[in-house]
Design brief:
By secondary structure, the protein is α/β, with parallel strands linked by helices. The protein is 37% helix and 22% strand. Bound molecules: flavin-adenine dinucleotide (FAD) and 1,4-dihydronicotinamide adenine dinucleotide.
């Protein structure tokens, strides 16, 4: 047994060293050029976005087959599953981001990255208008950073042969008054920083007020709206933070501070097995996390959330929930550019929640625009798992399209009948190898607080396991680490967890 243990330890160490070496020393890349080695024109693939869909496509694509251009206002990939751990400092922001340029460097062919957002797409001309803008770490909005506010943005036009549209979604506000002005979201890195700042500003301000003051109570109330996985995980993380760490620095704060989770439906985590929903709700009760189900938010102002509660008899009651920090996590809505693209295409007339795509991820009504991830509306849920699998599929699909294009070119150049028969057979085989995208659901995981998680796992078509508790928490952690893109971020995340276990989370505003 000892020998086996040593051997497996040595094997793991060697594998880790190899992975680190590969990450630090990427192989030289094939430069971009107008022609391929066989003389055929090298087509241009423009990838819009740097999230799950875009980066999964980029990482799995043989980038030597195309001139690849990545356009995104965010010059890094964000590992969203661990974003709810950032506002409380359980995870450091830098531990869950990978620069686009680093990822691009690890692919076989040279990739161009442009920090810009697409503002317009001319589908007929296969042309994009892009504008230099950066996802700002201070203001949190896409803005022009060169030359100040008065300057004209730098605008460019680029052409594509294939467009990979992976711009994600934005948080849906359903037009509810006050949300855009007063609530924080949890979608991007800056959202996490803003939530943390608000938590500390309200805590520090409350200390100036007498203990029995209503205003002090309001400031110390954290309200999270939306009982999907984002809202549940964030509320659980904040409650942990208050009970485990803030209480050491501000004695008694754990009794004064409240965390309220507001959900319009009768339950939280509606996509999970019913057993796990009950388990989550029982853990919340134990943690004294104030769960308000059947409570639909109608309006918010600078101090209060106004909601309607559906009673068991069918009656409704209006309630007011005062808040110091308000987070809005009620799911996705389409970005303006997605709506603008849909508006250009007849086949997208019914597209309300995202672009409609076919079985090869081609946008209905186009012959060269692929779309994946949260900007589409399909039978699959808007998750990282789906966008990731779609990216892998699309990379292999694009490789096949390149091969078909090359074979057609070679057939056009060739006069030898024997060669032509051989090439035609290869072309037929490649065309026949194109299969539709098929999503394989591997399950869903969510952190619910007090070092507990819930998991709805699926192994193939034959086995479903629903489990919750501390062991599931360990599984949750290892599953997320294994999903991370690089060895560097895996190491950083594990060391963050160790750091928090040893020293606890700190209580600085930043
Ligand atoms: P995104 O990852 O959002 O990427 C969109 C990209 O497009 C960004 O880089 C953005 O900057 C860029 N962009 C935006 N506008 C433009 C433009 N005009 N031009 C060019 N680029 C543009 N899913 C899971 O499966 N498991 C989880 O545990 C999980 N946890 C989550 C936790 C949180 C807090 C959140 C918010 C989501 C979580 N999800 C999870 C969902 C998952 O993150 C999304 O489904 C996934 O990010 C979708 O990938 P995407 O590529 O479509 O969009
Ligand atoms: P969601 O769509 O899953 O949940 C939003 C919730 O907000 C719903 O339960 C809805 O009933 C509620 N809601 C809507 N309007 C409301 C109102 N006015 N008042 C009160 N409640 C209201 O959204 P979420 O959590 O942002 O997730 C988006 C996607 O990302 C989902 O597909 C989810 O599965 C995925 N995700 C997965 C995670 C995981 O697997 N751990 C973590 C976070 C997100």
């Amino acid at each position: 047994t000892w020998r086996l243990t040593w051997l497996s330890l040595l094997g793991s160490a060697a594998y880790l060293t190899y992975e680190v070496y590969k990450e630090v020393n990427p192989s030289p890349q094939i430069p971009q050029s107008p022609l391929k080695p066989n003389g055929n024109r090298r087509k241009t693939v423009v990838i819009l976005g740097s999230g799950w869909g875009a980066i999964s496509t980029l990482k799995h694509l043989d980038t030597s087959l195309y001139n690849v251009v990545v356009v995104s206002p965010r010059n890094y990939f964000l590992f969203t599953p661990l974003l709810p751990s950032v506002p409380t400092g359980t995870i450091d922001l830098k531990s869950i981001i990978d620069p686009v340029r680093t990822i691009a460097k690890s692919t076989p062919g040279e990739v161009t990255y442009l920090e810009a957002e697409a503002t317009d797409i001319d589908i007929a001309k296969k042309q994009l208008t892009i504008q230099h803008s950066s996802y700002s770490a201070t203001s949190g909005v896409h803005h022009v950073t060169i030359g100040g506010d008065e300057a004209k943005p730098i605008v460019a036009t680029i052409e594509y042969d294939y467009l990979v549209f992976a711009i994600g979604a934005q948080t849906a506000t359903f037009g509810i008054p006050g949300i855009e002005k007063y609530a924080y979201y949890l979608k991007e890195t800056d959202d996490a920083a803003r939530i943390r700042r608000s938590l500390f500003e309200t805590i520090e301000a409350s200390q100036l007020l007498p203990k029995d003051s209503e205003e002090r109570k309001r400031l110390l109330s954290v309200v999270v709206c939306g009982g999907g996985p984002t809202g549940v995980e964030l509320a659980a993380e904040i409650k942990d933070y208050i009970d485990e760490d803030l209480s050491r620095f501000v004695p008694g704060i754990e009794n004064e501070m409240s965390v309220t989770l507001v959900e319009a439906l009768p339950n939280v985590l509606n996509a999970f097995n019913h057993k796990l929903i009950e388990y989550t709700e029982s853990i919340f009760e134990k943690q004294q996390l104030d769960l308000r189900v059947n409570t639909m938010v109608k309006k918010v102002d600078d101090k209060n959330v106004y909601a309607t509660v559906k009673k068991s008899g069918g009656d409704t009651e209006n309630v007011t929930i005062p808040y110091g920090t308000l987070v809005w996590a009620t799911g996705n809505g389409p970005r303006p550019l997605t709506k603008a693209v849909a508006a250009q295409i007849e086949e997208q007339k019914t597209a309300r929640r995202g672009l409609l795509i076919g079985e090869h991820l081609l946008v209905d009504g186009t012959d060269s625009v692929f779309a994946l991830g949260d900007c589409t509306f399909t039978k699959n849920p808007p998750t990282a798992q789906v966008a990731h699998q779609e990216g892998i599929y699309l990379a292999s699909h694009l490789a096949k399209l390149s091969k078909i294009d090359d074979l057609k070119y070679e057939i056009g150049q060739n006069t030898d009948p024997e060669q032509l028969v051989r090439l035609q057979r290869r072309l037929d085989r490649t065309q026949a190898s194109i299969l539709p995208f098929k999503y394989t659901h591997q399950g869903a995981l969510a952190y619910i607080g007090s070092e507990r998680a819930v998991a709805d796992l699926v192994w193939g078509d034959w086995s479903n396991v629903s489990t919750g508790g501390s062991l599931t928490f360990l599984f949750w952690r290892s599953a997320y680490v294994s999903m991370m893109l690089g060895v560097r971020t895996k190491i950083l995340v594990v060391s963050d967890w160790i750091k928090v276990k040893v020293f606890g989370r700190d209580c600085s505003k930043e």
